[in-house]
Every structure is written in C-alpha cells, then in structure tokens.
Amino acid sequence: MSPPLGARAPLLLFLLCVPSACCVGAARVGAPRAVAAAPAARSFSASACSDAGCELRETGGAVGVTEVAVARYVASEGKIGWNQFDVSTVSGAASAGVQAFAAGFLEGTLTADVIAQTARNTVAYFASSGVAGAEFPSANVTAFLLDQAHWAREQVAAAGIALEDCSPPTASASAGAATSSDGTRWSAVCVVLRQLDGLQKGYGAASNASFATGSALLDVLTLNAVGDLFQIMPAVDPSARVDWQRLAKDNPLEALAQLRRREHCSGLVRVTDDYGELYFAHSSFFTFGNMLRIYKHYDVPADGSGARRRLSFSSYPGYLESLDDFYVADSNLAMVQTSNNVLNASMLELVTPHSLLAWQRVRVSMALAQSGQAWCDTMRFHASGTYANQYMVVDLNKFTPHHPLEDGTLWVCEEAPGLLPAADMTPQLARGYWPSYNRPYFDSVWSQSGYGEMERRMGANFSYALAPRAKIFRREAPRVANLEGMKRIMRLNVPGDPYSEGKFSNAICARGDLDEPAELGGCYDSKISSATMARRLTSVAINGPTAQGVPAFQWSKLSQAEQDSCAHEGQPDRFDFDWMVMQPTPLVRAAM
C-alpha cells in the first residue's frame, strides 16, 4: 500500500537524536524482493509548507504558479535500469528556503521506500566490508555528522541569513561573512540544508519501515555523506585505517585488493579529431549493493536571491547529489569526477566537522559557478578534504564546433585534506582527451597523499602514467570518434587484455565478480553527454555491470552465501539493460 501522501510529518528538532540513540546494529539483508512491472508516473504538488511538512496533492500533469513545488517520480528500474525523478519549484511562490524544503519533502515522500532500501543496503555494506572498521555507523561517525550539520547551520546564521528563507545577507547583516561572495555562498548552502530538511521530513513521514541508522535524520545524513565517509571514517575511528606501508611490505596482493576496494570510477573527456564535438563520460565503481538508482532533474533556487539552477544528474535514493559524480547544468557547465585515496594517515588529522562536506560544496558550486575556474574556487570554500576526488569541469560556453578550444574549456581540481590545487587543462584536452582513473594528477596531491611512497614500494600500479587504466585509456581514447565509440570505451572490459594484468577489476569498467577471488563490486553504470546534448540537459545512461563481451550480471546465478554477503534489497535480479536517454520533464506551466 502506498504511504499517505497528504500526512504531515511530526515536528522534530534538528538535533533531537543523540549519538547513543542513533546507533543500531546492521541487520543482514537477504535476496532482493521481486521487481514488478514499472508503474505509471506519479506526480504531486506541494503547498502550505511549514517545518512540519507540506500538503501534497496528486496532479494530472504540469501545475500552475499557485503551488510551491511539483514532482514526478517513475519507479522504472526493473524495466529500464533507472528510476526517474523530476522536481521543479515555482519561482516567486515562496521564499527560496521554503521552495527548497518543498522540493526535498516531495522527494522524501515519493521515494521513501527506495530510500529505506538504500539505507539498509548501505549500512549493511559498511558494517560487513571492513572499510568502516569495527562498527557502522560508529558513535564517532554519528557525532561527526551531527556536529557538521549543526556547524553548517550556525555558519549560515552567523552570515546573517535566516534558514527560513535563505535570502542573502544585507551589507549591514553580513559582518560574519568575509566578503559578499561568502554571503552568496552561505545563502546557497542554506538552500541545500533546507532541501535536506524537507527530504528528512518527507522520508520520515512516509517510510513504513524502521530506519537503518535508528532515525530518518541520520539515514539521510549518512547517505548524502557516503563519499565523504571514506575519509571521515578513518579520521575518527582508528580501526578503519589501513597501514598502507606495512601492508605493502607484508601482503602486497592484499594492498592492491584494498586499493581496488576503495577506487571509485573512470572518467573521460574527449574532443573529436575535427573539434566537431566534445564528449564527457563517467562510469561508477562501488559495491554492487549500490545499484538501486534514480536519475534526477532539479529546477530549484540557486540561492536566496531569486536566481535558479537546473541540474540533471545520476544519483541514488535519498541523495541530494550525484555521488558518482555526473552533472549537467543550465549554466552550460558539466562535471564528472573520480576519487583518489588518502594513503598517508597523517593527512587525516586535518579532517574536522567544522567544514563543508564535498557533497554540499559540489551542490553550491553547481548552483553558483559560471566557469570552471569559479567552480574550483567555490570548492575551496570551507573545504573538508573529504571525498578526495579529481573534479573535471567542462565549460560548454567555451566550445564552438570546428573551432580551436578556448582557454577554460576544461578545468581540473583535486581535493585531499589540506589541499585543493586546480588548473586549466584545456591544452591537454586539445590534444584529444583527458582521462581519469583514481590516480592523482597534481604532484602535491600525489606525493602528500602517499602515492609516491606506495609506487616506490609496489611499482607502477600506484603511478599516474602506468596504472592499468592509464595504459588502456592511452590505447583506446584516440580511437573514439562518436557517441557509439564513447559507449564502447566506457563499458570496456576485455578478457585477456594485457594492460588489465589478468584482473577484470583493472578495466575501465571493472568487474570484480569475475576475478578470482571474486568480489561483488566494480563498475556498475555509465553516463555520457556531449556539448550538443548537454545544452538540452540530456545524457544517455546505462545501469548495471558491463555485459560488453562478458556475461551479464545476475544475482540469482550467485550462491546463496554470495547473495547474502552483499545486501541488495530492491534491485532487479538481472542487469542486461540498454542505454536510455535521460532528459528533464517540464512540470510547471508558465504564467498566463
């Protein structure tokens, strides 16, 4: 039975949950539920919003300008590999803070069931994989997330911004903000926090299951911080740390396995030889328990000034960001990223909850930046150093088909605790392509993060130039001439490829389940867009491990022990989906 969509959530204080009450043990999740035929789209509008929730009503299509927000959800993963969610707020119907809350409330309500499934899968993975240490979420992790959330709200208030409306501070009220740009950034942070508030309240009211972490609040904080947790967990819990140097000496094969377990994603930016088209693409790596997906399209306030931002991105239930990351925006900026590891434990001492997490800064950067350089500058705003990524920002405003690439077409920045170097990499792209494969490019990040030391101990697998995917991209990327070529390279996993060194997990689209010993993780999706498509906020996407030249992944073909080892509640059994076109659906009629 569907949850009551008109019900209001009970009023909850933001920090009501204390760490000891929020921590519960992770339950074992078995085989996935059967996936029914995809239902028709469900569309609802939100109005009369307060901190307790919003009044929702079902709509037959686009709504007028009397509503605060409208959303459309299609539960279609079992049919096409992706669920789909669109939300648009109505400009001028309420303050930016109320609009953001309404957008989050609609998402939390309409997707509550899959949020709960994703939260259970996520908690089970971290609790059983060893990545999180002795327990998940530990009391220290819980305290960090709650402290960070509280600190961010305090900073918004200190900048003279009311959480209720998120309006940028006046000159007299912005004494707490160092510059007017800081005030604008805190206003954009406010919008993200209010959307998170709405998500929590909608999910909490509509979910008919117990919360994986003990509360709706901690569920949504944990899900949105999944990427950041890869540095938060070892920073606050010594049991989650890997002594990379000792492991390299005592058990080098295990060191490589641990490295692959923490590697997330392959990325590629490719300009065709005649400069006629510019492509960018991303393939996500993580546990196969994370293949419950939603492709999202947001049309929401950028900050409290009345400015707006439209975003389309690959995502997951309960996430207000991509995680992968793969974004296109109506600013004509696009961003993809791949993650790096922090192999130097001393850097983790710099991680503090009194900072903005990567997922929050990415949303703010996508909302405000008008260039790749500005995007990277915004990422430095109270940077946490967590989710240590290489970000590739493509400025499509700089691209004209069949003309030389303008400076600023591609900016690349990399984050690690205490570091965030950035540079214009257009000259490298002009030679044909920019690849990304979980190895830091900038010398400061590569050396201080510990890659230099590990390369000296273990060889080329840790190097930027000679890692397996570096060599595969160098061989394959120059051959890409069109969209079909991009599809092929981003799903590439060739049995016997000499550059993969005998491991399916070393390919551009890794399949850890095909290795011996097998591991249920690797590449589980790919997304591609281009200068032509992105201007319409359009991409093509495919969900599931690659089946290009290798068998399709199917849960029921695994042993029961293997299935039980990787929580995957809510997923289809077999992943043999095709590429799908992803584009936003108009939801709000223009005023007459």
Features:
eleven-stranded mixed β-sheet, Penicillin V Acylase, Chain A, alpha+beta, six-stranded antiparallel β-sheet, 19 helices, single chain, 592 residues
Structural overview:
InterPro entries: PLipase_B-like (IPR007000). This is Phospholipase B-like. This protein is of the alpha+beta class and 592 residues long. It is built from 19 helices and 21 strands. The protein folds into two domains: 30-236, Penicillin V Acylase, Chain A (4-Layer Sandwich); 242-539, Penicillin V Acylase, Chain A, CATH 3.60.60. The protein has helices spanning 19-22, 77-80, 96-110, 112-129, 139-158, 180-206, 216-224, 226-236, 244-250, 252-261, 358-368, 372-379, 426-430, 443-448, 451-458, 468-476, 483-490, 531-534, 560-564, and strands spanning 42-50, 53-58, 69-74, 83-89, 266-271, 278-283, 285-287, 294-301, 308-315, 326-329, 333-339, 389-395, 410-414, 422-424, 433-436, 521-523, 525-530, 539-543, 553-554, 574-575, 580-582. The two termini are 38 Å apart.
